[in-house]
Amino acid sequence: MSTISPTLRCETHPISGAVYQALGEGRVRVEDKAKGKSGVFRHDGTWIEGDLTHADMHLLGYVGGPDLPAGRDLPWTLMPALEVDLPAFAAAMSTAQERSPQKPKIIAKYVGDPGMQTPEGPRSSAHVPLEFFLENERKPELLPPVYRKSSPVPGGPERVPVARYFDRRYHDLEVERLWSKCWQMACREDDIPEVGDYYLYEIAHLQYLVVRTAPEEIKAHVNACLHRGRQLRDCSGKKATEFRCPYHGWQWNLDGSLRLMTAEWDFKGVREHVSRLPGAKVARWAGFVFINPDPDAKSFEDYAGPEMLEHYRKMQLQNRYKQADVTKVVRANWKVVQEAFLEGYHSLATHPQLVLRGSECADLRFDSFGNWSRLGHVGVAGSCPHRGMVLSREQLLESYRHTADFMREHLRGMIGNEVDQYSDAELNDQGFNNLFPNTSPWGGWARVVYNFRPHGDNPDEALMRVMFLAPWPQGKPKPPPKPQRFLGADQYWTEAPELAAFAKIFDQDCGNLHQVQRGLKTKRPAYVWMSGYQESIIRAFHRNYAQRLGLEDGE
Question: Which one of 115, 191, 371, 377 is CB 3.0 to 4.6 Å from 187, fit for a cystine?
């Protein structure tokens, strides 16, 4: 289990100025000098003592909650790929922080974001047009044309019925019309590197064995014996030569063809009906294995669309090394969980420690191209309009170029001169993109991949999967990918130290979600509002969702 704040963190709230000081054993002292009050709380928000009786639960959790082991509170975008190199990296980071002046932590009153009107519609007052950064691109010849495209989701705020998040009718429709019809990421090719290696992919109550049948061939079979339906395999595995049912011994070859029926004399005329395991279509893209159970589905390339394929083309995700793979049970519908990662609007309230450093995410870009949506691909953090702090374009451009130069040299130490093929925009890209319905490979060098699924047939629980794909030189043999870690609903993300500092942020994000799931069931009126721009990718998702499920307006 994660330890409780062994480092005794101390943070200042970005708006109130109250100081949050860890006391150990999950307790936090909060002193608000402006109010002349103080109090002691549990990290989960429970008041213990004092005349200050309420505090920010997310900052309490960040300061006093379960923490990472020593030497693991590291920026995930900069970590070395290999475990053996982490101690030296952590020591170097510590030395650099001691020697370098720290970015100031600015406290400011909440003033609200007045917004602004642009040719594309209402935007935050921190908005900077895409064209500004692209016109100041220092290596325009390297910039992929897709980075210049703009495709905001049309329309304004929309209502989404709450029943979509918990009513079993929607869950059953998803199985029938999403999970049985859409392209979905199952695993990485590196997870099944040799012939006979197989990965058990589960979505709701559906199961598929994704198996490498030849060095350059992968197939997906329904994981059920055609005799009495027993699962052929209960978990992923290596170097199989056949799939033998443990119940009565029927066997299938790796390609799904029938090898053996025990006591076949007693099944006269049956062989022709069980000669091959039913399967799913398979696509390989950027080192991922996608499956689609629909035999009539269009190709993965047509489904993803040209914009997505072009956006990732130079990034060569197939060359990356999988340095982390963590799946956690979350007590909320998979859409509730995914939607927490399809906008940056929540940062002001959910991640106050980031806001203190100017990362409100109010100026993110949002574009949608059919089944693929792109979030935040060009731009730089720094403005905090809800606290009256908006950086000038000149300040943002200076920061933008500094980030590009830093990343260029940092990556040079990892992938060599390959880095010289990337523009400033690509080196700044931290976009948390999404391929409908449930997979989010981030853009640029953020190395993050999300995937969201229902936890079995329970619409009130989800599986959230997080991978880190570290930069790796092209042509250099990769070590075996890190095995998948599984966390239960009551465990913290910090129990996966391979996620570095991101684990603490995930704990803040997921700290909202069970309460959202419960609140949706009691909410009146029975719908939620999605904003015109900052939640526009969620609006795009629900438009695709309603179309796929065949829902009427407002259903």
Answer: 191
